[in-house]
Design brief:
about 40% helix; alpha+beta; 3 helices; 4 strands
Length: about 140
């Protein structure tokens, strides 16, 4: 005759519930620790490079899954490098006056503008007035 061994043989329902509750507490504790650790890393920047003032990536062109061509500004020189998974190679130096460089970050549309495109009933005149005020304020500051 065979004797079968069951997983919960001899255990009561209360013990099973206590074990399940303990596992849930451990799971929640791990989630909380992961959350606070990621917030701490985000604030302090541990393991991340700091912003450099002398080296700037001007443009990146993706050639394939893991291969890129980048234009870097190092001090006053512009160089072109090829970057792959395991290798970085210097290609050439480029004349900076011939490059088209977008200095400012393009202004992202506000939530109102995006919503106005979706909802046809939105008052577009108010949004246009706000844009005009911003542009005139920028013009006054530029002079």
């Amino acid at each position: 005759m065979r004797s079968y061994i069951y997983l919960f043989q001899g255990s009561s329902t209360i013990e099973n519930i206590a074990e399940l509750f303990g596992l849930l507490v451990v799971f929640v504790l791990i989630l909380v620790l992961a959350y606070f650790t990621s917030r701490w890393i985000g604030k302090t920047g541990v393991g991340m490079t700091t912003k450099n003032r002398n080296i700037t990536v001007i443009e990146t062109l993706r050639l394939s899954q893991s291969k890129y061509v980048q234009i870097l500004k190092i001090s006053d020189k512009y160089i072109v490098i090829a970057v792959s998974k395991d290798h970085v190679e210097y290609l050439t130096e480029v004349d900076g006056s011939k490059l088209e460089i977008n200095e400012g970050v393009s202004e992202t549309p506000s939530f109102k503008e995006i919503l106005a495109k979706i909802k046809p009933n939105t008052n577009m005149k108010a949004i246009d007035d706000e844009k005009t005020k911003k542009e005139t304020k920028k013009d006054k500051n530029d002079v």
